[in-house]
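User: I'm new to structure prediction. If I give you an amino acid sequence, what do you actually give back? Let's try with this one:
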Amino acid sequence: MILTGVIINVAAIIIGSAAGLLLKKGIPDSMGDSVMKAMALCVLYIGISGSLDGENVLIAIISMALGTVIGEALSLQERLEKLGALIQSKCRPSPNGVSVAEGFVSASLLFCIGAMAIVGSLQSGLSLDHSTLTAKALIDGIAAVVLTSSLGIGVMFSAFLCLLYEGTITVCARFIGPYLTTSVINEMTCVGSLLIIGISINMMFKNKIRVMNSIPAVFLPILLCRFM
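Assistant: Good question. You get back a string of structure tokens that encode the predicted 3D arrangement of the chain. For your 228 residues, that looks like this:
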């Protein structure tokens, strides 16, 4: 089945999030805040590590600039916040004041942006090799436990965006595979990792950067690498 790897990855996020919600009940608010700050530092490390994969700094700069302009024009952050508010209205209020949208955005970027998500989905679509997505599922499942214990149920909803993102790449693999060279993937990982750094800053300082409005930047290297 072409989507086997994607389904395993999504299931791992949901199961990990459920475990995180159970764990969260036994954690005092002060400890939860400290854990969230510690996780923010780990996310910062992930972002810095991935940003070093870039080979052309101009591509990163242009992608971030143009991508943010596109995202601002489309009001992606506002749209996501409205979706988060809708979900929030159906959920119990978070005792530590963390919004569903915050957990959703933070987890979505961590789970969707990166070489493993792209390469793994391509392998599933092109050769039915689900090994990379299965390995990613283990990593994401553990991360979901930790993130959910700090950021709440919004992390679980990111599984549905992961399903859409990886599922689309998997199904379209035969069409977009030739354009995703090693250089393109490295630049996409670099730009995506810069956004992950933004997530870590938001986790520590409560939404100072409108990360969602920079999401289009992740896909611009597909075009820019053809000319630079």
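You can read the tokens as a compact description of the fold. Here is one thing that stands out. The two ends are 38 Å apart (CA to CA).
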